[in-house]
Fold these 2 entries.
Entry 1:
Amino acid sequence: MMSNSSLVSYTKISPNKTSPRNHIIDTITIHCVVGQLSVETIGDVFAPTSRQASSNYGIGPDGRVGMYVEEKDRSWCSSSSANDNRAITIEVASDTSHPYAVTVKAYEALIKLCADICKRNNIKELKWKGDKSLIGQVDKQNMTVHRWFANKSCPGDYLYRLHADIANRVNKLLNTSSEKPSTLKIGSKVEVIGTKYATGQNIPAFVKKNIYTVEQIDSNKVLLKEIISWVYVKDIQIIEGE
Ligand SMILES: [Zn+2]
């Protein structure tokens, strides 16, 4: 089941795409825009068919996220059909010259977007070795860069050098979400942010997004008092102040 990121605040679907993609999503490819363009302007750039280019997402200097090609479709972004059929491509607004730096807001939004993409597409970990020979070997490396597929500096040295940091920070977000928060205790008010795991069942069941009280805590799941259902700790968020 492919979905799109809920972090998107602006959508302008580009005609420059192949629908649907022919491969599952198992890779992320980060690009630099070469211009501190807003998500709206990036959308305008990808709008004409004559442009023959697009990306799944774009991030503006203010940290807002735009979507130009849905995740179910292949963007025309990395000069490689094979790559773009399996990758989510992200254009990040950057300076127009070396090292093509991006703003702190754009960078922080990029980390969150990558973590969101991994979670929804069941990518357990982002892996970066900076090794072009590992293209397609996603068990060893599932981040790629445009410069491997075309004679370009993209994603620019600024973002290229930060790829290990991006992987580390995203993996931290992916891991911490499954750890039991130290503030979680019986009586805590929690909000269900994902689905599932109903009592006595091993199959996922839908739990309505709402605020519940923790009645019991197991290693990685909690029993919700109001509905007498277990949910995974990774699918809840502790409400502030409780
Ligand atoms: Zn690029």
Entry 2:
Amino acid sequence: MAETPERESMEFDLVIVGGGPAGLSAAIRFKQLASEAGEDLSVVVIEKGGEIGAHILSGVVMDPVGLDQLIPDWRTRDDRPLKTEVTDDKFIFLGPGGAADISWLPMPDFMKNHGNFTGSLANLTRWLGAEAEKLGVEVFPGFAASELVYDDKGAVKGIVAGVMGTGADGQPKDDYQPGMELLGKYVLFAEGARGSLSKQLISKFNLDEGRDPQKYGIGLKEVWSVPEANFKEGYVQHTMGWPLDNKTGGGSFLYHFRDNGEPFITVGFVVHLNYANPYISPYDEFQRFKHHELGLPLPQGRQAGCLWRARHHRGRLPVCPQARLPGRRADRLRRGLRQRAPHQGQP
Ligand SMILES: Cc1cc2nc3c(=O)[nH]c(=O)nc-3n(C[C@H](O)[C@H](O)[C@H](O)COP(=O)(O)OP(=O)(O)OC[C@H]3O[C@@H](n4cnc5c(N)ncnc54)[C@H](O)[C@@H]3O)c2cc1C
């Protein structure tokens, strides 16, 4: 085997793993606070998706309270990422042959959507990525953080990103590239649900001791491009009940929103993973749900051109890193990571 290349390292004030809404919001807030204090602090965000937003699948109907605080002028900006305010919010209980609108029942606040927005969380995340870059955050999509780096007292001091050429047995192959160590005074893990490094940290530092176990679900989503006749801007609907049995948690979501002026419907289905029937397939339950006459209320009917151009959100997206960073320091990081990435340059 060829000689193993040496691993370089770079230091930052804050290293953030995961360029989702949480990681990018934290990066933005950190930069805002640093600027208020007159400090120029360095922040890097490492994102394993080929571009920011590539791994973000959510619906989304969203309470904008956090965004109002983070970027107070977002509602008046032309490039704002959420434009469709919720106009009608329905909660429906489905049975095999019928449906009951239970929206009139008193619901907890987190289940009420008036005042919320609907749209694409991937678009919102891309927008947050651009806002972070404007503030000087170094955003690197296309690189997974794959290892933790500890100091001699056992505290986390960084991560390793951009490792390539490891075999299925975990051993380096001939084309092995060691990636880079990104070291931070603070390291923030914003990997979303079941992050691979977060799992190691939870286990090493017993972070789940005395806590309830995590509960997981699988969510599937499609985005439909629909004719205006089948579109009701701002309509939000959730269902529970059929096709799931009464021992299985979950249900459907359906949001009507515009993107670049075009009408879209996001439709999805969530199944909680504590179901008792081992034969349940969340994907098939989603397909069954779509055949319920009342589950998908489309004014012109389901056959009127809705199912064409449905986009399933399950596959991998192309790798095309979009870091645009000024300065020699950024050049070094970009070079260090990219020279180690044989797949760069693919569309
Ligand atoms: C189908 C579905 C529908 C949903 N609908 C709604 C909704 O309508 N409204 C709502 O408010 N919420 C909704 N959610 C929940 C919402 O998506 C999450 O709460 C939100 O995305 C969490 O943000 P996050 O930044 O913590 O994690 P994530 O959005 O999961 O982002 C984590 C990011 O970190 C990256 N990452 C992970 N590990 C690494 C690593 N080791 N190295 C580099 N990068 C890494 C991932 O690629 C990802 O981009 C939905 C979720 C799903 C799945």
